[in-house]
Amino acid sequence: MNFIPAEVNLEDDIAILLAAYGVFLEHRRYLLDMIYKDGLPPAIEAFDDYSHQFGVLMILVAVLLVALDLLFLALSTWGITFLSLKYLEISLLFLINLLAFAMLANYGRRAIKAYGEATPA
Predict the structure, then answer these.
(1) How far is residue 66's CA from residue 44's CA, in Å, rounded to a whole number?
(2) Residue % of the chain over a pLDDT of 90
(3) What is the pLDDT of residue 1?
(4) Rounded CA gap, 71 and 69, in Å?
């Protein structure tokens, strides 16, 4: 069964975007230090710690995505192909993409909440 051949490239692109966003979030402290010369307010510092942890988690999700993609590509190259393996591949990659989307939505929700706490009314 031949699914979309560009699926491998799409998964690689998604993994690159997740990893790049994770690296940005992991290192956003340097930008905050340039903005806040006198030190970070407590609410922003707490959110920055969360952003750092979230960035590392996004990098790990991207690595998992690429590792599974390469595993199924290797199995296909070695001639181990059967229909349920393709469905397993699509299901696992879809679940990881869904997990990444849910994580990004949760991060966006926390970012909006942290912005509301950091700005004076």
Answers:
(1) 32
(2) 36
(3) 47
(4) 5
Find out whether 11 and 93 touch, Cβ atoms under 8 Å: yes
- What distance in Å separates the CA atoms of residue 8 and residue 56, rounded to the nearest whole number? 24
56/107 Cα distance (integer angstroms): 13
Backbone phi and psi for residue 79, each to the nearest 5 degrees, phi listed first: 90, 5
Cβ within 8 Å of residue 10, ≥6 positions away:
4
Q: How confident is the model at residue 118 (pLDDT cuts 50, 70, 90)?
A: low
Cβ(89)–Cβ(50) below 8 Å: no
Give the C-alpha distances (Å, rounded to integers) separating 10 from 1, 5, 15, 69: 18, 9, 9, 11
Convert the pLDDT of each residue in 81-105 to its tens digit.
777 888 888 889 899 999 999 999 9
Among left, alpha and beta (phi > 0; psi -120 to 50; other), residue 40 is beta
Residue 8: the pLDDT is 65
Task: Tokens 């799409």: give the residue.
Answer: 10
